[in-house]
Design brief:
By secondary structure, the protein is of the alpha/beta class. The protein has 4 domains: 7-141 and 243-277, Alpha-Beta Complex (Spore Coat Polysaccharide Biosynthesis Protein SpsA, Chain A), CATH 3.90.550.10; 142-225 and 281-323, Spore Coat Polysaccharide Biosynthesis Protein SpsA, Chain A (Alpha-Beta Complex); 330-404, no CATH class; 415-519, Jelly Rolls, CATH 2.60.120.10. It contains 11 helices and 31 strands. The strands form 7 sheets. The chain has a 6-stranded antiparallel β-sheet with strand order 21-22-23-30-25-28, with no helix packed on it. Strands 7-10-8-9-13 form a 5-stranded mixed barrel. Helix 3 (103-116) packs across helix 6 (231-241), helix 3 (103-116) packs across helix 7 and helix 6 packs across helix 7. The two termini are 49 Å apart.
Amino acid sequence: MSKSSSASLVTPVILCGGSGSRLWPLSRSGFPKQFLVLIDDDSNQSLFQQAVTRINAIGNTQIKIGPSIIVTNEEHRFLALDQLRELKGIEATLLLEPVGRNTAPALTLAALQASANPSNNDKNWLTSADPILVITPADQAIQHQTTFVKALQDCVSVVAGDISKMTIAVLGVTPTAPETGYGYILRNAGRGKNNEFFVAKFVEKPDAKTARAYLEDGNYLWNSGMFVMRASTWLTALAQFRPDMAKVTGMAWQSRSIERLGETTFVRPDKRYFTSTASESIDYAVIEKCVTRDLDHTIDEMCTDTLNGEDGFTLKMVELDAGWSDLGAWQAVWQVGNKDTDANVCAGDVFLSDVRNSLIHSTGRMVGAVGVHNLIVVETADAVLVANRSESQNVKHIVAQLDQKGREEKNLHRKVLRPWGWFDSIDHGERFKVKRIMVKPGASLSLQMHHHRAEHWIVVKGIAEIHNGEQRLVLNENQSTFIPQGQKHRLSNPGMDPLEIIEVQSGSYLGEDDIIRFDDFYGRE
C-alpha cells in the first residue's frame, strides 16, 4: 500500500473452538487449552488473550483495526467474555456455535458478520462492508511479536493490493525440524514486494523420511492455519467450492438470534441448520482448491490475471519465522518453555534432583521428582499425568478412556468457573458433596430448584442475599440457612467484595444436571 492510499479496514477473527485433549489434565472440554496460561512470560495471558492482543497490534497508518470477531462454543461464551474484559479497549462480537463444525463453517459465520456489521463510526474512509479478515486460531504461541506483526502487515498489504479481491494470503512457518504432525506448504521461487511467494501446493502430514527431505529442500514451510483475505473472497470461494456448506451455514446465519449483555453482543446461528452443515477445515473446503501453479515460473511471470488457481483465486504466502508453535501436545509446551540449566520446564511448587529434559507442572500441591529424564508430569487437584515426553501426543488415548467410562475428569476441573464466579468440589461421598462457592460482587446465581438434593449454606466471607422459597434473607459471616429439596432458591452477592460460602449437599443424586432454572441473568437454560 502506498502512503497516499486510504487505510484498509481489518477485522480480527479469532477461531476459539477445540478441546485440546492432548493437553489433559490441564486442558479439558469445559476449560480448553486456549483459555489456559501456558507460556511463562510477563503478560500472564491465556493463549486466547495473546491471540487477540497480537492481531489487534498490527494496526498502523495504513491498517485500521475494527472490532474483533470471536467464534467460540456456546459453552465457553463466559470464559471468553471474562478474558476479553481483562484486555482493556478490545471491542468484540462473540459468535456462538451450538456445536463444533470445524473451521470452515466458523469462518463463514465470521465473514457474514463482518460483512453485515462493519461496526465503525468513521464513515469517511469506509466505502463498503467488505473488510480484510485476519484469521487466527486462538491456541498458538508466538515468541517474537515484532516479527509476527510485520509478517501479518505484509499479508494485509498483499490482499489490499489486489483490486480484483481474489487473493488469499497465508502465513507459512519456517520449519525447525522434520515435523510429521503438521501440513506443509510448497512455495515458488521469487519474492514479491511485500515479501510474498506464490503457493505451489499444500502437502498433507508427511512421514519422517519425507519430512526430512522437506526440511533439506528449504521451500517447504509449515501451514500455520493463519489466513488473510477479504470477507467477500471467502464467501465467493465457498459458494464455488462448497455450495452445500455455503447454503446451509448461510441459512443458519439468516435465522440467527442476537443477545446483548452490557457492551457485548452474542450472535447465535440457528442450531437446526448449523448442526446439519458439513464439518470441514478452511484448508480442505477452499484453500487447497485455490492452488494451480507451474513451478518453473518466477514471481514476475506469475501475473494474477494469467496464472490464477481454479476460478481465478490467487494464493500467496508470507514466511513467518517468529518462534511459532501450535502447542498441540505437552512436548510442544516443553519446546517453547523457559528451560533451566538441565533443560527442564517447571511451573508451580516443584522441587527437582537429577532431573533433565522434563516438564513438571504443578497447579496446587508440591511436586518432587528425582532421577528421571524426558518426562511430562502435570498435577491438578483431581488428576496427575505422567508420560514420556516423546509420547505426549498419546495423552488423547487416556482422554478417550475417560470418555468411555463417563468420568467427569474428562470435562471439568474440580474448580469450575461460572459467569457469576466459581465453585470448588472439595469433598464428596455417598449421598453428600461439599462445595466452596465464590460469587462475584453484584452477581447472582439462577433462580433454581433441585429434585434430588437439599443444601446447607454457610457464609464464610462477605454478605449473601438469599431467596429461599417465600423467605428473603440477608446473611453475614458465620450465619447459615437450609434449602429443602424441591424448593426454589437463589443466591446473590449484593456487596462490593466477593462472597464465599460453604455448601453441603445431601440427597440421592448430586449431579450438576439436577438443576431446574426458572430465571437466569446469563441466559442459561
